Amino acid sequence: MAHIQIKNIVSGKVLYEGEHTSMREALEAAVAAGTRLDGANLAGARLDGAKLEGASLEGARLIGAALAGANLDGANLA
Questions:
Q1: Are 15 and 8 in contact (CB under 8 A)?
Q2: Is the predicted pLDDT of residue 78 greater than 90, yes or no?
Q3: Quick count: other Cβ atoms within 10 Å of Cβ 44?
Q4: pLDDT tens, residue by residue, 20-62
Q5: Residue 31: enclosing H or E segment and its boundaries?
């Protein structure tokens, strides 16, 4: 396990952090906890198959992120 932080792309503020085996696992835990991840820097993250239903990801940076098979039903990506 590694200590993973998800930070805001503009301010650098930590939006979520914890001990996880992958960024995908950390993001799923953050979403399950109801964490607002608006502006999260997820560029290049391997998120294939992630369960992100209802995630608040407005303004998140997803450039180069692998999202094949990810469930984004109801997610806010505006």
A1: yes
A2: no
A3: 13
A4: 999 999 999 999 999 999 999 999 999 999 999 999 999 999 9
A5: helix 23-32
Check: pTM over 0.85? Answer yes or no: yes
Q: Are 71 and 53 in contact (CB under 8 A)?
A: yes
The residue to which tokens 């998800």 are assigned = 6
The whole-number pLDDT of residue 19 equals 98
User: And the tokens for 54?
Assistant: 């209802």
Which two three-digit tokens encode residue 35?
Answer: 């964490």
Enumerate the β-bridge partners of residue 3: 19
User: Is 28:52 a contact under the CB 8 Å cutoff?
Assistant: yes
Collapsing DSSP states into helix, strand and coil, what is residue 24? helix
Distant-in-sequence, close-in-space partners of 44: CB < 8 Å, separation ≥ 6? 63, 64, 65
* Backbone dihedral angles phi then psi of residue 8, each to the nearest 5 degrees: -70, 135
Tell me how far apart the alpha carbons of residues 49 and 52 are, in angstroms, rounded to a whole number: 9
